[in-house]
């Protein structure tokens, strides 16, 4: 029953922020020459800036997830004290397959 579940929440969230940041920054670049659109924000292209912020955040999450995946490797349960204790408990209770 021992095993490693490779679920890292940074992967889907980083992907989401990266895609949305690209879309928002792309819209900001496409609407750069429209002063009426950005009149309420004192002529600051908020779509471009927040798109870039979201893009950087998403890339940082993806980088962190890929770095953690390289660092953490699956080790057999018999190599760690916690794994040996879990294996002994499973054997004692008859939960092994």
Task: Provide an overview of this structure.
The protein is mainly α and 97 residues long. The chain contains 3 helices and no strands. It has helices spanning 10-30, 46-71, 81-93. Helix 1 packs antiparallel against helix 2. The longest helix has 26 residues, at 46-71. It is rod-shaped. The mean pLDDT is 86.
Helix content: 55-70%
Kindly name the structural category: mainly alpha
pLDDT averaged over residues = 86
Series of secondary-structure elements, N-terminal to C-terminal: HHH
Short description:
This protein is mainly α. The chain contains three helices and no strands.
Features:
single chain, 97 residues, mainly alpha, 3 helices, 62% helix, 0% strand, rod-shaped
Write the layout of secondary structure elements.
Layout: H1 10-30, H2 46-71, H3 81-93
């Amino acid at each position: 029953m021992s095993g490693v579940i490779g679920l890292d929440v940074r992967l889907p969230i980083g992907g989401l922020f990266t895609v949305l940041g690209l879309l928002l920054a792309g819209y900001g670049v496409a609407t750069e020459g429209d002063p009426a659109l950005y009149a309420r924000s004192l002529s600051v292209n908020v779509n471009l800036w927040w798109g870039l912020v979201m893009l950087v955040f998403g890339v940082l999450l993806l980088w962190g997830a890929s770095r953690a995946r390289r660092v953490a490797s699956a080790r057999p349960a018999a190599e760690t004290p916690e794994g040996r204790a879990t294996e002994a408990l499973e054997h004692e209770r008859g939960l092994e397959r």
